[in-house]
Write a structure and sequence with these properties.
7-stranded parallel sheet; single chain; 40% helix; alpha/beta; 218 residues
């Protein structure tokens, strides 16, 4: 006899995710789930996005980490509400955690909530948080073979961000091979190449996100 433990766990999570989604819809708030490995540049991209969109949208950030509140403090220093979730060892956020974080935010005053998931290329993929969209960030130093090694996270994303393109001259990264691997897994998601450090290519990312959010907020 085979007992699949993931089915009841994910079933409970999915029910809470739908509750989160309904709450956000009620307040016309768009929620983005940002997934990537540690060091891919999640926080730096979020900070750059805040600066680009803060005049257009009222933003808040939910920070997921195994420990510490380092990233949440960076967001607060930028003048944006932030809620820290420490998972205590879990490699992903779950809908129940997001439900509690949303309760700590004034959703009536918000348009866009950005969730920075725990740095991991596997675990976050299976857990619906109630988000409107998922974005997966890969940085150039991680290598162009990651879609082959971790296909699930690329398949699950509505957009793929290739970050740290300013480092392309010093890394053996084949952009065409990367794009072909992504397209084989996810032909519909745009691949948005940028550098959150130099801001090269940021406009394309900001335009994509603003368009998605406006459909919910308007």
């Amino acid at each position: 006899m085979e007992i699949k433990l993931d089915e009841p766990i994910l079933g409970y999570n999915n029910r809470l995710a739908e509750r989160n989604r309904a709450l956000l819809a009620e307040h016309q708030v768009f929620m983005l789930n940002v997934m990537a490995s540690p060091g891919a540049g999640k926080t730096s991209l979020i900070l750059a996005t805040i600066e680009a969109l803060r005049q257009q949208f009222a933003l808040a950030v939910i920070e997921g980490d195994i420990a510490s509140d380092v990233d949440a403090q960076k967001i607060k220093a930028a003048g944006i509400p932030a809620v820290q979730i420490n998972t205590g060892g879990a490699c992903h956020l779950e809908a129940a955690m997001i439900e509690r974080a949303l309760a700590a935010l004034d959703l009536k005053a918000l348009d866009l909530v950005i969730v920075e998931n725990v740095g991991n290329l596997v675990c976050p993929t299976d857990f619906d948080l109630g988000e409107n969209a998922r974005v997966m960030i890969l940085s150039v130093p991680e290598g162009d073979d990651k879609p082959l090694k971790y296909p699930g996270i690329f398949e699950a994303a509505q957009a793929i961000v290739l970050n740290k393109v300013d480092t392309l001259p010093v890394f053996d990264f084949d952009s065409d091979r990367f794009a072909a691997s992504v397209r084989a897994l996810n032909p519909n998601a745009p691949i948005l190449s940028l550098s959150s450090k130099t801001l090269e290519g940021l406009d394309g990312w900001v335009s994509w996100l603003a368009k998605q959010a406006t459909c919910v907020v308007a």
